[in-house]
Specification:
The protein is about 20% helix and about 25% strand. It is α/β, with parallel strands linked by helices and about 110 residues long. Strand 6 and strand 7 form a beta hairpin.
């Protein structure tokens, strides 16, 4: 199994970082995307790493927060065939009170 971090909060390389998470996983003969970060920056990092998102076999969204789901539009533009799996509740409203104010994070 190989796991490549496409995006997360920090970096010590030439790759970009942002609040969010995206992992590219190779397991046996499958290529899997787990989450897609906040924006399309994960896809830019994938290109820089030589990772072809068009070759991904399946994608998973772990939960409905924007920092895990925001880049799926970019993924779907690059890969028209991979199914994207998520639990039904992913569409619900997600909120946080960090910083003292209620704000949406879904």
């Amino acid at each position: 199994m190989k796991i490549h971090v496409l995006i997360e909060n920090t970096t010590d390389s030439d790759l970009q970082c942002e609040h969010g998470l995206s992992l590219y996983i190779e397991y046996q003969d499958k290529k899997i995307l787990l989450d897609a970060g906040s924006t399309d920056v994960f896809a830019e990092n994938a290109r820089q790493m030589g990772t072809d998102l068009g070759a991904v076999d399946m994608a998973f969204l772990s939960h409905g927060h924007y920092d895990h789901s925001g880049g799926f539009g970019a993924f779907i533009r690059e890969n028209k065939s991979a199914p994207v799996y998520a639990m039904e509740q992913v569409i619900g409203g997600y909120y946080s009170t960090s910083g003292g104010n209620l704000h949406g994070i879904g």
